[in-house]
Amino acid sequence: GINAEYGKQWYQRRVRGPTGGSEFKGLANIRQVNDLNGSLRDKYSKSEREMRCKLAALYRLTSHFEWDHIIYSHITARLPDNENHYLINPYGMQYSEITASSLIKVDKDGKIIDPGSTVLPVNKAGFKLNSALHETGQNIVYHTHSHAGTAISAMKCGLLNLCQEAIIVRPVSYGTYQGFVPNRAEQVQIKKDLNEDSHVMILENHGLVSVGRTIEETFLWMAQLTKACEIQWRVLRCGRDNLTDRTFDENKAFEGDLPVELECNPNGVEYGTGELEFESYMRMLDNQGANTGYPYKNAEHIQRPDTDIPSGSVPTYCTWNGGSTVRH
Asked: For the chain, how many helices (H) and strands (E)?
């Protein structure tokens, strides 16, 4: 049937690869997210190591969900040790290749402070969009070019209230896309376009943006926004007249953090917005042998060694026998 054929195609693309080889190249050869070993571990503070691992893992998730596009777009993170320093991907690496050590440290103008473990450059033009939104006080800026997100960004109707996810992410900001290299005036405008109480933005004819305080919450906002776009993209095939666009009382809509109410939490672990969801995907990556180095809050159900790599323990779902392919 259709589902069986889709499953076969997914396996061919994701596991075996288009030519019969594995896209992941086997667990023995998967590139580790946390490659901050030896001198690299001593080079960075504990908080920077943790941020590097989380951001690199987010790049891997973006590739996993196919929200990336070749080597383009960026996810940037403000470093906790210096509010004027940011981490960004090297221009030339695919998201599936990003590791903690490969991330480049730049200042607010995109000037390189630390080149990381590659010899690749920074796309300063691409950083301008993210840096403008960082100026609004956002710690994380997550920009994607997913198929559904880009499709919805080209629609005059914008994001419709067709599903729960579309309501959760409101209010949605809209930004006007002016071109590949925004000038200072356009950077100022994009800052104005982001409403003070918005966590997500649709860049017209361009793509999606989510912003937040942490990697975890910024990922969750993007996941909810992308899901809403995917649903709208699909159901519009039925025709606009066949759709129910729900109205709602904005005063009673979700405010601030996404709603989470834990009735059974015997360990008393407190989770911030997106942490439960992000942690579940870190287990997925670690199960593939990616060694995220994620500091799990509640790892009682995870087998793990007593190590600190770089700021928490990692599950021992499988062993990784290869070496890092990123030059140190």
From this structure: 9, 8
Measured distance CA(132)–CA(202) in Å, rounded: 15
Q: Each residue of 191-246: pLDDT tens digit? A: 888 988 999 999 998 899 999 999 999 999 999 999 999 999 998 877 777 677 66
Contacts 24+ apart (CB under 8 A), 78-84: 78/134, 78/138, 78/139, 78/140, 79/47, 79/48, 79/51, 79/105, 80/47, 80/48, 80/51, 81/45, 81/47, 81/48, 84/108
Q: Report the pLDDT value the prediction gives residue 183, as an integer from 0 to 100.
A: 72
User: Which runs of E-coded beta strand occur in the chain?
Assistant: 75-79, 82-88, 104-107, 112-114, 140-144, 172-175, 200-203, 207-212
Q: Using 50, 70 and 90 to split pLDDT, how confident is the model at 320?
A: very low
Give residue 218's pLDDT.
96
Answer whether 80's CB lies under 8 Å from 44's CB: no
Q: What is the bridge-based pairing of β-strands 207-212 and 112-114? A: unpaired
Bridge partners (DSSP) listed for residue 72: 69
Backbone angles phi, psi at 83, to 5 degrees: -70, -10
Q: Is the backbone of residue 291 left (phi > 0), alpha (psi -120 to 50) or beta?
A: left
- Interstrand relation of 172-175 and 200-203 (parallel, antiparallel or unpaired): parallel
Coil/strand/helix, residue 41:
helix
- Tell me the pTM: 0.79
Q: DSSP letter for 168, please.
A: H
